[in-house]
From TrEMBL:
Pfam families: rRNA_processing. It comes from the Eukaryota. Belongs to the FYV7 family. Residues 1-25, 91-132 are annotated as: Disordered. This is rRNA-processing protein FYV7. Residues 15-25, 91-116 have a biased composition (Basic and acidic residues).
Length: 146
């Protein structure tokens, strides 16, 4: 409850019920407040004897501010398109590198499998390539530890 001007209590409206109306009221109040402050500031400048800026001067500042706006919609769209193209090329490049490494690993596995699957005339596995494989594993393990 808020006390009214003439002493009666008046129920305060809920600002969330009609948000558009309250938002419009807030904007209107802010604009009138800014205009009042500007008018008081200009009067104070006149009273103190300083020069008051002309409307043309103020307009010129506004034009400069408008010129400093950012890129237009088409320019932003072009930038976004270039960025997407760059990212797509980057992804394709990474995918190509991954495929190359997968292919190299597959070839190495196939080569090792071929060496380990060699057989003698009687069908027994050759032990030479198997022992060499174990030796390589041991050397890698000790090479990584040191």
């Amino acid at each position: 409850m808020v006390e009214h001007k003439n002493g009666r209590f008046q129920k305060k409206k809920n600002p969330y019920l009609d948000r558009r109306e309250s938002k419009n009221r807030e904007i209107r109040q802010a604009l009138t407040h800014k205009a009042r402050l500007k008018r008081k500031y200009l009067k104070e400048l006149e009273r103190s004897g300083e020069s008051v800026p002309d409307k043309e001067e103020v307009h010129r500042h506004r034009v400069v501010r408008e010129a400093d706006k950012g890129p237009s919609f088409q320019e932003r769209q072009q930038i976004a398109k270039e960025r997407k193209k760059f990212l797509r090329e980057l992804r394709e490049k990474e995918k190509k590198q991954r495929m190359e490494t997968v292919q190299l690993k597959r070839e190495a596995r196939d080569k090792k499998k071929e060496l380990l699957s060699q057989k003698t005339r009687t069908g027994q596995p050759l032990m030479g390539p198997r022992i060499n494989n174990l030796l390589e594993k041991i050397q890698k393990q000790y090479g990584n530890d040191q």
